[in-house]
Please model this.
Amino acid sequence: TEYMTTTEHVEYMALPRICALAEVLWSPKETRDEADFLKRLEKHFDYLKKWNYNFSTAMVDVKYKILPEINGIKIEIDSTNKYNVITKYGKTPDEAISDSGFNWDSLTGVYISLYKSGSVFFKLDHPLAKPTVISFTINKATSKAITYKNPPVRPYSTDANFTLVNGIKGTLPRNNSEWLGWSGEDAEITIDFGKKTEVSKVVIGSLEDHHNWIWLPEAVFVTFSKDGKKFKGDSKTIYKGGLKWNENDELEMNFKKRKTRYVKIYLKNAGKINAGSPGEGSESWMFLDEIEIY
Model:
């Protein structure tokens, strides 16, 4: 079950699901035809819109996947859409929504490769389709191999081998597929560039949401290795306390340029929740969304 606070939310969750339920319950199994149902459902959308219901249009949203690509990411557009997909690129979300930047029209069933930071706009060429805008931050960690000493726990472990290096920062309200979570445990993460790479900055994205028992890490150690065996850091990369997170719950570490193949990031969990806070006495959660390396 799910608790919903508004009538609009209930309508969104029920429509058009209830139409599909009616189709299954009222139509004999041998006469059911999904393609015919979807065709009729689109006409039913006209009535829902006329009656001002807050209904989901997910069936006309673009379906896509974000995949690793050497020095960037790949966007795979679902080729089963019967409508053309309008896709635009811009340096900012506003540019991507406008007609500036690169513009690919009618892209279906293809890969789009992105090698620099920016925003991509997706929309099916359908009057009810809503746009999706995703901003990517491409950096030296993007799409690189990532391993964990202790992996994130379910249900906060979606695509764990890619989520922290997919170029997408977590959004609020929280979409769990964009965040990885650890409960009562520290996190130790190693990123392998595949070859010696010059680095001078690490940015770690976390989340502070005490109402949901989520606390920022207490300490962060970033160390480096050329062989994956001996790791070393310094005063600019090892913080045992006094962490300064910005307004986006990001910790930025700037240090002297060095060449390394491996970067290991250790984040210390905040431990038991303090008295007087929601969940007091319970293990705190630690959430991460993206690791950037420059």
